[in-house]
């Protein structure tokens, strides 16, 4: 089941980025207010590619946990900054990737959860078109929470092989991840502008 999910995930992410490229060629631009959505799926796509290249490696495990919370919280906090700022975030990710600092990963995950919740609450006060993005941000939050739970189970040394709940957790992960990818295709036009 996991291998089938990996194929579906990779295909859906590839189609999403092909759609983004085609929309860009047709004159549509990514709305700068929602660059974090594109960043979220870009990191996810990079992780998917790394999973195919390096299956079952700590590189892919720490890539997603070092990149997701630091990049997304950094971009959500400091939008419209110069390129050097984003390079600084990249250096922070690389530094944390090298050190595997669990506390920094946990803190940035919690910060990211808080920032996404604020974004969801803020979208309730905007136009109907923007309120449609609440579902995308809600599923982003769910994906990040479940990803953080998997990370916590990893460093707490939870014995997955003896757990009777592993199949439930994996099913919940797969359902949430696939739902998020499908919804990103459905709501695709909402984070683009002319």
Widest sheet: strand ordering: 1-2
State the domain count: 1
* Unreliable segments of 5+ consecutive residues: none
Q: Tell me the quaternary state.
A: single chain
Q: Between the first and last Cα atoms, what is the distance in angstroms?
A: 40 Å
What overall geometry do the principal axes of the alpha carbons give?
Answer: globular
The helix-strand sequence is: HEHHHHHHHE
What is the CA-based Rg, rounded? 17 Å
Strand content: under 5%
Q: How many E-type strands?
A: 2
Largest sheet: 2 strands, antiparallel
Word description of this protein:
- This protein has 194 residues and is mainly alpha-helical.
- It has one domain (2-193).
- The chain is built from eight helices and two strands, in the order H-E-H-H-H-H-H-H-H-E.
- A two-stranded antiparallel sheet has the order 1-2.
- It is globular and about 50 Å long.
- 19% of the residues are buried.
């Amino acid at each position: 089941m996991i291998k089938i999910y990996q194929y579906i995930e990779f295909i859906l992410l590839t189609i999403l980025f092909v759609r983004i490229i085609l929309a860009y060629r047709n004159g549509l631009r990514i709305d700068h207010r929602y660059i974090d959505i594109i960043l979220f799926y870009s990191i996810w796509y990079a992780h998917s590619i790394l999973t195919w290249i390096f299956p079952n490696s700590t590189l892919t495990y720490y890539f997603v946990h070092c990149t997701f919370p630091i990049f997304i919280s950094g971009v959500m906090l400091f939008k419209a900054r110069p390129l050097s700022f984003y390079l600084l975030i990249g250096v922070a990710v690389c530094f944390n990737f090298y050190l595997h600092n669990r506390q920094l990963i946990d803190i940035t995950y919690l910060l990211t959860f808080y920032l996404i919740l604020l974004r969801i609450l803020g979208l309730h006060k905007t136009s109907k078109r923007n309120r449609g993005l609440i579902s995308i941000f809600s599923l982003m939050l769910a994906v990040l929470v479940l990803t953080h739970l998997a990370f916590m189970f990893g460093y707490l040394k939870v014995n997955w092989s003896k757990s009777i709940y592993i199949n439930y957790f994996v099913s919940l992960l797969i359902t949430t991840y696939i739902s998020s990818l499908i919804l990103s295709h459905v709501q695709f036009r909402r984070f683009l502008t002319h």
